[in-house]
Amino acid sequence: SASLDVLFLLDGSYSIGKGSFERSKHFAGKLCDALDIRPDRVRIGMIQFSSTPHLEFPLDLYLTKPEVKDRIKRTVFRGGSTDTGRALKYILRKGFPGGRNSSVPEVLIIISDGRSQGSTTMPAMQVKERHITVFAVGIKFPRWEELHVLASEPTEQHVLFAGDADDAANGLYSTLTSSVCSTTAPGCKVESHPCERRTLETVKELAGNYVCWKGSKQPNAVRASLCPFYRWKRVLIKHPSRCFRTVCPEPCDSQPCQNGGTCVPEGLDRYHCLCPVGYGADIHCAPKLSLECGVDLLFLMDSSAGVTLEGFLRYKAFLKRFLQAVMGQDSPMNVGVAQYDNDVRIPIEVGQHKDAFSFMKSIDALNFSGGGTLTGRALRYIARHGFRSTPVFADVQDDLPRVVVLLTDSKSQDPVAEAAKYARDQDLFLIAVGSSFVRAELAEVTGNPRQTIVYSDPQDLLNRIPELQRRICSVDNPEGCQAQSLDLAFAVDASAGVGPGNFLRLRDFVRSSRLHFSINRDVTQIALVVYGSKPHTVFALDTYTSNSALLQAIDQVPFLGDSASVGSALLHIYGDVMTVQKGARPGVNKVVVVLTNGGGMEDAAAPAQQLRDNGILVFVVVIGDAQRDTLLRVAGSPNYLVHISSYEDLQYYQDLIIERICEEAKSPVNLCKPNPCMNQGVCVLGPGSYRCECHGWEGPHCENRVLRGDSPRSVVLPPHSHVQRSSSGLQHFSRGPRHTKRH
């Protein structure tokens, strides 16, 4: 927690290779965990070097640990020769970029294989003469003697090996504790221990003596002789050494996990408990699980030939363990079981059993049937017949939330998307449990990846019981953007720079992103624009009102293949997509997500600023190498810029991007941004409402031209209001459900 400037110097040369470079980034992230990164404490910067040094980010740009670790992850491998000396001279000339000018201790952490193509002795000595503490971290199979030249004294405390990231991070922590911080955590002590340095060397080895021919003093004569033959071989050489580490009391020494739970330490002072089935609701495995939420719950169990008899018996065991864990005498839930193949049967009606013992006897009596896997048909049947209301009093209806948990491990032989939508439209809350083999289909069933539970092996299925309990009880608390009103437009680069193959990856990203939103007029509307040199609207905000319709339209998106112009795409979105005429709703947050390879950004800064000035967030997702300064001008802030190294990695950033969009959907809205008034009408804000001042036009949004001397008028609109016209021609405004009607 001392005030400290730490600069990473990462070897990005070809001798390291991309794989070892990724391990270097992982190690740098591990070191960040040992540091208290804050503006007044530890600051982090990074330079990547190969033939030339390249500043990745200065010390004053990212001032929190999550920001620094996220930026390190997004660092792209550059390649080139290994010129460590040149990188050190860059630091001697420029100092620590964005640093605090030696007013705080400076620490340089070099992560390299130590195979520089120039001399490092003199620049390394000059760096250390400036009182910069230098750590040399070996990666891959390093040249240890060069790393010892680079590191500060004593070298055994300043030379680390990134191959064991945890041990090396501990070593850095230990050295800083004794030098910069001068204190250890309570109960901890620094100790040395024997360790091993490894390197791969090329050695000459005698292969044997073979007959060879040599000349002689006599003319035209040679003589036979035995000559030694050598071969070159790469061998792994191990060098015994001593390392330093901080040893602390284990957080699990107090045995905090109850009911047979296993304690797993996390760092110096944290731990988590691996709980047995039925005890996962508490961090210490203390209480028994219970479904305290009142629901009507129906398990829809696949008993087709696709899951096999073994899989069916596994599902029965899962149901019994679930009931043991959550079903008590006072449980407010009603549970039933249905099974399906070609047909659907409901052997255990919802609410038929009130105690776990009789319920489990009924589960034991369930038989495997085999047959086809018609999941779509089963969902439709359950939507119609799965929940039969049996009210206690004739005039009191059972209004508990209705939850269906689908258990399947085989792909359906009939379409599921429309059937699942039909079930959800009947106010059924769908949760799907299955193996990773059917992950995509499960997401189609639930309409939301967060409501799918994927297991990796049979034992892992039983471990998912606590997660299933949380999902069931979240029925009234939608996650993500499911309950947030949002107008969302995707601008997808379809230029030749992206290429047809990568364009399909961008299209698939939009395709899967839609599942995180509730698509309808009242909640989320999505528009899609593809662009090359000119933009093309695939569909507007108000074109589609369901996920299934969006899916079909996204699959038809054309690849354009010419040059890219992000600016023209953003201008098009401002003037022809995010408008009241095209479905944009006043009083609803608006976001534009640009998916690009970074090309065609030169003309985009001004249109992006125009969108922001009108209350529309611009979120830039760039894949590949691009100029950060240009991207930042378009995004407006590092918070709205995601830089991804490859198209293959795009899928791993989806949760992060969706999370940030959802955060934006919760922010306050200016009802007059963007201007909801058409035909040069002026929007005037009132308390909780707005009105349009029209000139030569009339109507709530100045949409009707004034004819034959009618006087223009302005109308006060509360947000999300309904407009009706009475028989006398007067307009009446009433506050209605949010966004149920567009004017």
UniProtKB/TrEMBL annotation:
Region (Disordered): 713-743
UniProt subcellular location: Secreted
Keywords, in A-Z order: Disulfide bond, EGF-like domain, Repeat, Secreted, Signal
Entry GO terms, CC: basement membrane; extracellular space
Listed GO biological process terms: calcium-independent cell-matrix adhesion
Alphabetized SUPFAM superfamilies for the sequence: EGF/Laminin (SSF57196), vWA-like (SSF53300)
Domain named EGF-like: residues: 249-286, 668-703
GO MF term set: calcium ion binding; identical protein binding
Transmembrane segments: none
Signal peptide (UniProt feature, chain positions): none
One Pfam family matching this protein: EGF
Domain VWFA: 5-176, 296-472, 487-661
Predominant location category: secreted
Annotated SMART domains: EGF, EGF_CA, VWA
Top-level division of the source organism's lineage: Eukaryota
Coiled-coil portions: none
Quaternary state and interactors: Forms monomers and multimers.
Protein's name in the database: von Willebrand factor A domain-containing protein 2
Source organism: Burhinus bistriatus
Name of the gene encoding the protein in the UniProt record: Vwa2
